[in-house]
Design brief:
This protein has 422 residues and is an alpha/beta fold. The protein has 13 helices and 17 strands. The chain folds into three domains: 113 residues, 3-Layer(aba) Sandwich (Rossmann fold), CATH 3.40.50.12160; 230 residues, pyruvate-formate lyase- activating enzyme; 53 residues, OB fold (Dihydrolipoamide Acetyltransferase, E2P), CATH 2.40.50.140. The longest helix has 24 residues. The structure holds iron/sulfur cluster (SF4). The site of iron/sulfur cluster (SF4) has 10 residues, from helix 5.
Length: 422
Amino acid sequence: MAHYYLWTIGCQMNRADSERLAAYLDGMGYKPAASPEAADLVLLNSCVVRQSAEDRVTHQLDCLKAVKEANPKVAIGLTGCLVDSNAAELKQRFPHVDVFFGPQALGNLEEWLSTRGALPEREAPVLAVRFPTAFVPVIQGCDSFCTYCIVPFRRGREKSRPIADIACEVRELVRRGVKEVTLLGQKVDAYGHDLPEKPDLADLLTELNGIDGLVRLRFLTSHPNHMSGRIIEAVASLDKACEHINLPVQAGDDEVLKAMRRGYRVGDYRKLIDRIRSVIPGVALTTDVIVGFPGESDEQFRHTLDLVKEIRFDAVHVAAYSRRPGTWATRHLKDAVRSPIKRDRKRLVEAAQAEIAQGINTRLVGQAVEVLVEGKEKGRWQGRTRTDKLVFFSDPVDRAGQLAQVKIDRAGPWWLEGLAQR
Ligand code: SF4
């Protein structure tokens, strides 16, 4: 029996692509292997959004040289955002890799496997279900071209899937036991503008909210310029839409936002946050921030830090700016912020956010929250609230895949802990 090993790094879109890849291979009769050494087919799903991610991919690829030397029959494939129209160049760098295929080009892997006589006789199912939660890509690509971002170059222009296709996939996922679906897109709130009927994310959420057996709906990642009143109202009124919105701000300074070509000012963002909070009671807001963008002064950074403290997000994902070859910022902005300064700024935002998140989460102590249980971690059940907070609890009863009411008795900045209610 053939085995595959699949290594994934990067965003939820990559995780969703890997779920599909795994489902495809499962359908072909492959079984998952515990390590590359135990596999017949090793696939790496790469990310190049930041230098650190690309370095980890390169390291993994280098480690696979020894695996190939020990077992020349093992097939090695590389997918994800490292693969562009650059397969020839990649083949020179990594001659031990047998096949390269882009994020939307599962067909290339299929074609390559067919030349090796390894195609399934029956059609492979496209859906993988291993948890009560699943990711469903609804719009691919990005038309925005923020000056620091490589995604539009690797994932192409925005392309939405029709509502009927998505609903069909979600119904099938629910039939297989999924209770929570996260709709994915690089700019998920831009969903639908490229389709003939021009539906929007609110229409999609409304359609999916009617699916029996589905318990929760989420969406990632939003862009402030596309977060419309209709979407906010839909989240407020649809019972399955979770009260959590990730809305990357990236910087709290107008000049930096302009250099990033984000298309909004800090004041617009503030107003949007106020509107969301006034329409969706108890909403959890999370954001992404980049520090050390070329030319970012101490004062400009201070504006970002002040905004984080003012808005009091539930979580902030902070990244130090990283040059990505091919992006506008790499080609045109030379005024690099030195690495130690970037590290300091990152630490300052993280420390401020840890304090804020600790305060927000501590307010939940003594309250009961609804948790969708995803699995066990070190003997404790683990799941998430509707507001996307990670919760651990002990219970001798099998809770896998269930909704549990958990009374919170301890809180940290990134987690909650409590007791299951009967
Ligand atoms: S909106 Fe900007 S940061 Fe987000 S994927 Fe598009 S170009 Fe990248």
